[in-house]
Amino acid sequence: MILGRTLAIYFSARFFKSILGLFLLAAVLIFLFDVLELVRRGGDQEGFTVVRVALISILRVPLLLEQVIPFAVLFGSILAFVTLSRALELVVARASGISVWQFAAPAVVVGLIIGTLSVVAYNPLAVWLQHRSDEAAAGLFGSEQSFLLQTTQDVWVRQDGLDGESVLLAKQLLDGGTRLLDVTIFAFDKEGSFKERVEAATARLGDQIWFLEDVTVYTTERDPQQYGRYEVSTYLTATEVRESIGSPESISFWSLPRFIELARNAGLPAYRYTLQYQTLLARPLLLTAMIIIAAAVSLRVSRFGGLGSMILGGIVAGFVLYVLSELAKDFGGAGIVPPIVAAWAPGIFGVLMGLTILLKQEDG
Are 232 and 210 a contacting pair, CB within 8 Å? Predict the structure, then answer.
């Protein structure tokens, strides 16, 4: 029996509502916890207001929620399957000759649509909002900003310049690697001897030079000196800075291919950014895997009951895929395995696992 158009639309709407409901619930919870954390850490900082912190959190929550999308699809699909089963709608559908593959098809279509839209539209919007959040938070959290905003890591970057080598640390990266916040530079002369330590509130990358503002210079020969502006030579480019300090998640889906090409042309490894690009491309497949797994763990409930076993099965399946994804990400980001393999393997594994369980349940 072929699933009718009206019934397919009805099932699709039920799945979409369940997934959207869990996604919005997760958004509210993340926002509340995020605001509380920002208030706790920034409450005594100059320029702090509750409205400003709430705005920062609202702007950065969408990017944080990207990690929740697969789990919202998994548990939303489980909820939809169980709700349809308890209302006897799936029972009636199966009694009329509709197979599990047919009533799961609308859910898979919904997953593919959500996955595609989350990549081509939601991700670029979330990254743009994250950049606005970074700008709104600039200077508010001081040295803790990188921890709070989670857009960069404390990475020491070695650079060379006309005046000699130096080592740079920045707490936050803005404007594609051309502007840094909370910068520390250890400078050495051409003979390799330590010359000075430079601490600056901001640094802007020009043509082979860092333009620093609000600077304190420490040397072994005199007391600390304050400067409104200061310059440090460098051969680094914006691409090299972003590759060393920036996070792949801070680049939108549409900008990743161009950045990967720039990194490769500069002779830099682009494993992390290639992995991020392939991971986004593979997201529709991963969401499809989540829906098939949800059907596998929910089908037995519709026949034999056992809500606790269903929830446990869904959690275990989600945990397995999460661990596999993280391991693949670590291997792919380090260049141990090809990024394309690391990105697509979790989705392929999830689909095969779900199909195997469904085939066993349906056909023995």
Answer: yes
What's the pLDDT tens digit per position in 131-150? 888 788 766 654 334 333 33
With a pLDDT cut of 90, the percent of the chain lying above it is 35
Neighbours of 136 (CB within 10 A): 16
**Beta carbons of 65 and 30 less than 8 angstroms apart:** yes
Task: Using alpha carbons, select from 147, 149, 157, 197 the residue that is nearest to residue 177.
Answer: 157
∠ at Cα 287 (278, 13), nearest 5°?
140
DSSP 290-335: HHHHHHHHHHHHHHH--HHHHHHHHHHHHHHHHHHHHHHHHHHHTT
pLDDT at 149: 38
**Strand partners of residue 205:** 210
Contacts of 42 (CB under 8 A, 6+ apart): 48, 53, 140, 141, 144, 148
Closest Cα to residue 164, out of 198, 189, 196?
Answer: 189
**Can you give the pTM of this predicted structure?**
0.78
Q: By three-state DSSP, how is residue 216 classified?
A: strand
Strands 157-159 and 209-218: unpaired
CA distance 10 to 90: 12
- pLDDT attached to residue 268: 66
User: Measured between alpha carbons, how far is 177 from 13 in angstroms, rounded to an integer?
Assistant: 43
- Specify burial of residue 150 (Cβ count, 10 A radius: 0-12, 13-18, 19+): middle
Q: Please report the pLDDT score of residue 225 as a whole number.
A: 92
Question: How many other CB atoms sit within 10 Å of the CB of residue 266?
Answer: 13
Q: Name the E strands within the chain.
A: 157-159, 166-174, 179-188, 194-205, 209-218, 225-233
The whole-number average pLDDT for the span 264-281 is 82
- Span 48-59, pLDDT tens digits: 788 888 999 999
Task: Determine the pLDDT at residue 37.
Answer: 85
Helix (H, G, I), strand (E, B) or coil at 165: coil
- Specify the residue for token string 């530079």: 185
Q: What is the mean pLDDT of residues 276-283?
A: 94
- Cα 77 to Cα 111: distance, rounded to the nearest angstrom: 9
